[in-house]
Each structure stands twice: as C-alpha cells, then as structure tokens.
Specification:
Elements lengths: L6 H14 L7 E5 L3 H18 L4 E5 L5 H11 L6 E5 H9 L8 H4 L9 H5 L9 E13 L23 E4 L5 H7 L8 H5 L2 H12 L5 E4 L4 H7 L5 E5 H10 L4 E16 L6 H14 L2 H7 L6 E2 L32 E3 L2 H19 L2
Parallel strand pairs: 1-2, 1-3, 5-6, 5-7, 8-10
Antiparallel strand pairs: 3-8, 4-7, 4-8, 4-9
Helix pairs in contact: 1-12, 2-13, 4-14, 7-9
C-alpha cells in the first residue's frame, strides 16, 4: 500500500495543530479495545501511566473492537464519532483506512523515536503495514486444550478435526479468518497455496466442507475471553483464541490447560485514530499516541501479557511478568521453540476479500 506523497506535510500540519491546542486538549478520551487480559495490559502499560501524567483526565474504556469496522461506519454515516482511539487488527486497520474512516499517520512525526534516535519508521519496520495503522503487538491465534480431558496431548492443529481421537466440543471463532486457513491446511493444501486456493469458489467450498466435518462439535465464540472460560469450565476440550488469553489462563490462573502452537497464526494489532475528530480531541489523542508508542511502553505491555512488542528496540527490554516474576520471552509466540510451524496472516488479502467471505461464512453457519 503506497504512502501518499502528501503524508509528510499532513503529519506536520497535524502535529502543529496538536501543539497549538496543547493548552486546550480534551479532558476525556475514549479508548476502544478487546477487553479481558489484553485490554488490562493496555490499561497498566499505557493508560494508567498516562493519566498519572495528566491529572484530571477521564479515560473511558470500551470493549467493542470486534465490531470496530461496523460501528465506525455507522458513526461516520451519522456524523457522530464518539471514539477517540481504537485498537484493531492490521486487516481491519487496512479496511478502515481504505474507506477513509481512519486517519493517515506519519510515523516519524507522530510516533516516538527509539532511545538511540532511530526514527519510528525504521524501528517499527515491516509492522507498519498501512497508512493509518499504528502497530503495538505481534500476537498469534492458536489453540488451548484441557490437559485432563484428553487421553494424550494434541501435537498438530489438524487434531482439532479428529473427533475420534479427541472427542468433545471445540471452540472456534465465529468468523472465517483463521478457520479457513486451518481447514485448507488440514485438507492437504500446501501452505504457500492457501490464499490462492481461497480466491476461488471451489477453495472456499473446500474449506467450509472441512469445517463442516466438526461443525456439530463446535461452540462459536466472538470475544477472545470466551475460549479460556469454556476451557476452564470444561465445556470444550480444545479451542482457538489469542495466545495471550491462554497465557493468562495457564500462568496467572493455574488452569489445567496446555498450548498447541502448531500452525499458530501470526497477526498484528495496533491503534487507528478515527478520521474527523475535532481539534481538542485530536490533540489529546496525538499526545497519548506519542506517549504510548515509546520503546519502554511497548516493552512494559509485555510484562502483563505474552504478546511481542511491535518495535525492534522494545524486544531487548522484555523481562519478567509484573506480578508473577515469570520470564516472559519463552511465552511469546515469536520464541523459537513456539514458532516451529507458523502461518503469517495475510493482512492485505483479507482486507480485499473479508466482506465477501464474511457473508459466505455467516450464511454457512445458518445452514
């Protein structure tokens, strides 16, 4: 996705506007994210320290990121943008940017440089996947399983489709992303051909047919916190969710849950700023973004959840869990022991095909 030639000038203009409004920044800010352990990590690493530096600021947290695209479309149509900064996946960030619902950014004027002066554009590197997307973390969607409810530990993602060897309910996300790729991998499609296959109707039908072999055994989830709870309650024997949610259940809550890292799906998560914010709210958000993209802040988030920071200078600063003293590096999806088989989520592909596959997937669920 090309960077528009006016971006640098736009960035300079916005920074100047923010500086001009410094004394009149909004005294409240609505931050939208995903809830659960992940949003808590943001509160601890970013929001609480920022509020401590800005007495009197009221930060409102919202857990609606799963509906970010739909809700921002509706807000834009109504001419009433009530959110100030929104955490989204990279693919959703690209969609919102393409639709003009997210503001374009210039990393080197709007985001903090590294401690050694390395510009943000270099330090974030290839995690800067779009004109509007501000990367925070590298995470993966993978599977957890109840160690006491299986006769042996599953070793491959394809064990999810083996209901004879691993009887019981599974939980899968109620959207095509991830599910379609795993279905094709476990139906014999080579990794490098998965997205080419999904571009055809035959490939879509093939993925849905594979998912159909376990459809009656699936509990579908919409929020990342659901699978850990379903596992904890013994309602499912295995299920997909974000690796940080499973870390929380296993390490923090001491649940009898194991991790299945095979063909974990790497993804990026980060901020977008809704387009069209009034000057005082934009000034507040830009001040927060400069603070929250600091090298140490991204490393601080990794002290609360097992997601890798999205900028290179933060990685060496990742240490122990803030409360438990557990070394966090071995729990990261990028740790070599966990990353033997990984599947890199194709952000731009899903940004192009998401609406069509969402419609087909939801229709299939109703069959």
């Amino acid at each position: 996705m090309k960077l528009k030639t006016t971006l640098m000038a736009t960035g300079a203009t916005l920074i100047a506007a923010a500086a001009f409004a410094q004394s009149n920044m909004a005294d409240s800010m609505t931050v939208v994210s995903w809830g659960g352990a992940y949003q808590n990590s943001q509160v601890k690493a970013y929001i609480e320290p920022y509020v401590a530096n800005n007495p009197g600021l009221n930060v409102i947290t919202d857990e609606s990121s799963a509906e970010a695209v739909t809700k921002l479309r509706a807000m834009s149509e109504a001419g009433n943008i009530t959110w100030d900064i929104v955490d989204v996946t990279a693919a959703d960030g690209l969609r919102l940017c393409d639709e003009g619902l997210a503001m374009e950014i210039d990393p080197d004027t709007m985001l903090a440089a590294a401690p050694d002066g390395t510009p943000a554009s270099e330090d974030f590197g290839n995690t800067l996947v779009g004109d509007c997307f501000i990367p925070q973390i590298v995470f993966s969607t993978t599977f957890g399983y109840r160690t006491d409810l299986v006769s042996e530990a599953p070793t491959t993602v394809c064990d999810v489709f083996d209901t004879e060897k691993f009887p019981g309910k599974r939980s899968l996300e109620k959207r095509p992303i991830g599910n379609m790729e795993w279905a094709l991998i476990c139906d014999g499609v080579p990794i490098e051909e998965v997205y080419d296959t999904l571009e055809t109707q035959e490939g879509v039908d093939r993925a849905l047919a594979k998912l159909g072999t376990i459809k009656d055994d699936v509990i579908w989830w919409s929020a990342g916190a659901e699978t850990p709870q379903l596992l904890a309650d013994g309602e499912v024997v295995m299920g997909s969710t974000y690796n940080g949610r499973l870390f929380s259940a296993i390490v923090e809550q001491n649940q009898p849950i194991g991790m299945l890292w095979d063909w974990q799906m790497f993804d990026l998560d980060g901020w977008i700023i809704p387009a069209g914010l009034p000057e005082d709210r934009l000034a507040r958000v830009m001040d927060f973004v400069m603070f929250a993209t600091d090298t140490q802040r991204l490393a601080d988030q990794a002290a609360y959840i097992s997601y890798g920071p999205a900028r290179a200078s933060s990685a060496p600063l990742v240490g122990q869990h803030a409360d438990l003293g557990v070394e966090m590096a071995p729990h990261m999806p990028t740790d070599p022991a966990n990353a033997v088989n990984t599947f890199l989520f194709n952000f731009e592909w899903w940004a192009s095909y998401r609406d069509d596959l969402d419609a087909q997937f939801q229709a299939w669920l109703l069959q």
